[in-house]
């Protein structure tokens, strides 16, 4: 697993290069590496796609990345720093949750105001005669 930590420090390009080299060496090896990278979430593959996923997920992908990083990151050897890092990550997760809740309340308020405006417009519109109503001829 030390190789995985090393490749994680270089990011996705390193995993892509390893996958390509694996396919070049022996296709089952490349297939195994590809399955590992997708299955472990290192490639960020998921059901949701597109730019709007960041708003829909509320940064769950980012939080997941921080969670994996904090769990897989080996101890620095300095207990005070490790405790500080854990406390900082916990505080950031709490702030992220608060911000996500704030955004949800903002969306609900916007939806409510749009609905209220729609209902007000609908009430103020004069009633249209139906198809069976006599015309003015």
Automatic annotation (TrEMBL):
Query: Mind telling me which residue stretches traverse the membrane in this protein?
Result: 15-39
Sorted alphabetically, the keyword list is:
Membrane, Transmembrane, Transmembrane helix
- Ranges in a coiled coil: none
State the InterPro entries in the record.
DUF2852 (IPR021273)
Biased composition annotated in UniProt, kind: Basic and acidic residues: 113-126
Q: Where is this region: Disordered?
A: 113-137
Superkingdom of source: Bacteria
**Is Transmembrane a UniProt keyword of this protein?**
yes
Q: Where is the composition biased (Pro residues)?
A: 128-137
Query: One Pfam family name from the record?
Result: DUF2852
Its recorded name reads: DUF2852 domain-containing protein
Annotated organism of origin: Xanthobacter autotrophicus
């Amino acid at each position: 697993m030390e190789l995985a930590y090393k490749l994680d420090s270089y990011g996705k390009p390193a995993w892509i290069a390893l996958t390509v080299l694996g396919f070049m060496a022996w296709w089952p090896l490349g297939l195994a590496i590809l399955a590992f990278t997708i299955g472990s979430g290192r490639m960020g593959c998921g059901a949701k796609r597109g730019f709007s996923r960041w708003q829909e997920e509320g940064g769950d992908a980012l939080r997941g990345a921080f969670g994996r990083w904090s769990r897989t990151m080996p101890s620095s050897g300095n207990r005070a720093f490790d405790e500080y890092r854990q406390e900082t990550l916990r505080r950031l997760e709490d702030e992220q949750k608060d911000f996500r809740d704030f955004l949800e309340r903002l969306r609900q308020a916007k939806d409510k105001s749009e609905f209220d405006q729609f209902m007000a417009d609908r009430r103020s519109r004069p009633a249209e005669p139906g198809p069976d109503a006599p015309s003015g001829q």
